[in-house]
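Late entry, written up from scratch paper. The run itself happened at the end of the previous shift, but nothing got recorded in the book at the time, so transcribing now.
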Amino acid sequence: MDLLQLRYFQTVARFEHISRAAEELGIAQPSLSRTIARLEAELGSPLFERRGRGIRLNEYGAKFLRHVDRTLSELDDGIRSVREAGDLGLGRLAIACETLLTITTVLGGFRTVQPRADVRLYQSNAEEMHRQLRVGEVDFCVASQPLSGPHLESAELVREEVLLAVPRGHRLDGRESVTIPELADEPFVTTRKGHWQRALLDRLFAAEGLTPLLSCEGDEPGASQILISAGLGIGLIPAMSREAGTGTRVPVAWVHLEAPACHRILTLVWRRDAYLSEAALKFREFITTGPFMAHRLPTPPGPGTQHPPDSPPDSPPDSPPDSSAGPAAAAG
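Output as recorded:
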């Protein structure tokens, strides 16, 4: 058994599809199939169930994968730590988020004070975030849904109301609040299952014994307000979008929902036993100190102005959010 076999197995387990895994790895499909067959022969047990052209991880494969993920993650952490020890930069910082707009402003401020950080971003749903943390693909997830596990830690970034956004001129434009039953026949713009907006929408309607009517399902939560503004339906949007002034650029009307627990909790999640680069450690400190909504893109310095590399952003941590902060907080 060698390292290459384990990496090949991990990729096949991720895709549960030989052709896609071979394409990802850049090798021929027959070669990958033979490698998996040799691994299974060495272990003395099949790791996948074959179903026609498809495969599925069986109970032995799932058990083996947990150990492989842990082993390869430890190895990759060791490689990173050695490489970064001789690096003049701060090392890699990898972050996953359901919509990149949620974290754009924060990252803009962080890169200004830590320009040597190597930042990489991924857009992922909750299920993919779990996998990325497990295998060490990312250092942090900025999640709007609970990510739990014995090896995970988290810090709450913001707890905010979720509002109903409706197109201008809609029958609810001008209403202060509305109940879920009043929305039974309204078409909703939302995300596919797996994203926080859809999970919240389904839960609110299920509490009333109803099923929401959907006009649009997508994979980009940040596009919801644009689609609502165009008249394609109504939808759930976090309050930070209104506070950031997105309604002036993508006009919608905001209505409060009379429903219990109609809020979003944004958390920073990381693996407790994972190696964190200096960049990752500095980012965790940066994002967890001070109110999340106080972060904004810094004003470009004037001629001759210089900021020391570790100086804080222009605005103090407790300053109110600026409506000119751009779309970074929109529809996160």
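Residues 296-331 have pLDDT under 50 and may be disordered.
(Scratch paper discarded after transcription.)
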